[in-house]
Amino acid sequence: MSCSTCSSDNPDVAAFCHRCGTSQHANATTQRSYAVQSSEGVNQFALISTIMPHTNRETADNYRWAMIVSAVLIVGATALGLLPIAIAAAAFLIPITYLVYIYDVNLWEDAPAPVVIGLFLVTGILAALVSLVFFQWAFDTEFASFAARGGIDGLSFKALLLFSVLLPLIAEVVKNLPAVFLARLPQFDDMIDGLTFGVAAGTAYAAFETIVLYQAVFTSDQLRTEQGLATWIVVVVNLMVVKSLIYGTATGIAVAAFSGKGEGYDGFTAYYAKNFALAAGVNVLYWVGVRLLSYLPFGQGLGLIWGFVILAVLIIRIRVMMQAALLEAAVEAAAKSDVSSRETFVETFCPECENMLLAGSHFCIVCGTSVRSTSRQTRKVMTTQALPADGSPPYGAPAPDADTGSGPAGGVA
Questions:
Q1: Residue 345 near residue 396 (C-beta atoms within 8 A)
Q2: Which residues are registered as beta bridge partners of 16?
């Protein structure tokens, strides 16, 4: 059976083309399956598979429940008035979970932890410096008026521009710098790598900015607070989920655009500029909305809802972006008959549905999952299943590297 998109030959039983991922059936719903996680739709609000594309359904459920339980405990600490503990835990929940995810899936097996911890620390230091300049050193008077409670008549337009427009723009530049530096390296040139660096940098920035912003809570003599706990619960949920993920997903979109589709990074193109402007603009919209909504009745709750709306848009944007990149890169490679370092080189098994993957696959012919979203950890298991008993690579497969002794694990480089 020949694919209508790339003309590659596929088995008659194939539901998806093994080269370009195109559905081999006329069912429109099948065509909208998300290439990273085929059991989900492209336009589905699914957080874990979006920011953690190397997870399968089982591991995604583990992270989902771990984050839910942690969030409940943090909200419980807030309800008890333990604000220093609650705010610190809320600030670092997503970043630490992301570090664990990267280490768990062994995303870059040469040095997974040093790469992302370095990115986390560099971004955190820059975030702390920018936050100190805006909140304490240069614009402390303006920030006091900006954060003061009262009617909208008391709002300073200068303060609104400083903290809801200028600061988010500078923050987006700072978040992009270390992530883009890593994304330009040859071993990290995939769009999924760019997304990962962007999310890691964005969530790290959010965490350290939160610590500086709520410094008074940590330096207070009172460990426990009894007043305004309902409002604090909304604030903590906003910091823990909405702010962290908006920062992370927005920067992830920008850095993924820098990486581009296919092998090699695209760089500072018009496509990157457009997505960087989107990321910066979304941050501005978020903070302007939160500030203005705070003057309305139930303003904190309205700000939380506003943040969730923006987050939903960003999640869908990432999924559409990743879907297009994975499919377009695969179609281009198939049309040119190029051999990609990320395709399978032996018959092995899909980590998602456990059906056989054909040699030269970019996608599973049964579930349509992209091979590029497979973790290094899973690839090692795939290698064990696929290689001959003596451990030698099959005829025509790339030989192991002479220095490291490692080759394309599981048929996927």
A1: yes
A2: 23
Secondary structure, 3-state, 197-259: HHHHHHHHHHHHHHHHHCHHHHHCCCCCCCCCHHHHHHHHHHHHHHHHHHHHHHHHHHHHHHH
Could you tell me the mean pLDDT of each successive run of 10 residues in the chain, 413 residues long? 71 69 58 74 89 83 92 96 96 93 70 78 96 93 81 81 96 96 84 91 97 93 88 95 97 94 82 96 96 90 96 95 79 57 58 68 72 54 47 43 42 38
> Any alpha helices (H) in 260-349, and if so which ranges?
270-293, 299-336
- 8 A C-beta contact, residue 411 and residue 346: yes
Task: List % helix, strand, coil for the chain (3-state, nearest 5).
Answer: 65, 5, 35
Distance CA 123, CA 315 (A): 22
Q: What is the pLDDT of residue 333?
A: 60
CA atoms within 13 A on the CB side of 87: 22
Alpha helices in 25-165 (DSSP H): 28-31, 47-51, 57-79, 83-104, 112-132, 140-147, 157-161
Query: Are 197 and 119 contacting, i.e. CB atoms less than 8 angstroms apart?
Result: yes
The number of angstroms, rounded, from the C-alpha of 366 to the middle of its chain's C-alpha atoms is 26
Give the pLDDT of residue 336.
56
Helix axes 83-104, 191-213, angle to 10 degrees: 160
Beta bridge mates, 356: 349
Q: Phi and psi dihedrals of 33, rounded to 5? A: -65, 140
Asked if residues 282 and 246 have their Cβ atoms less than 8 Å apart, the reply is yes
pLDDT of residue 108: 58
Q: Measure the CA–CA gap between 244 and 232, rounded to whole angstroms.
A: 17
Give the residue among 195, 148, 164 at the shortest CA–CA distance from 49.
Answer: 195
In what helix (H) or strand (E) does residue 348 lie, and over which residues does it extend?
strand 348-349
- In degrees, rounded to 5, the angle at the alpha carbon of residue 265 between the alpha carbons of residues 259 and 268 is 75
Question: What does the pLDDT read at residue 131?
Answer: 96
Q: List, in sequence order, every residue forming a beta bridge with 190; answer none if it has no partner.
A: none
pLDDT for the residue numbered 408: 39
At residue 341's C-alpha, the angle toward residues 40 and 376, to 5°, is 55
Q: Please give the Cα distance from 363 to 360 (Å, whole number).
A: 9
Q: How far is CA 216 from CA 8, 135, 203, 346, in A?
A: 63, 12, 22, 59
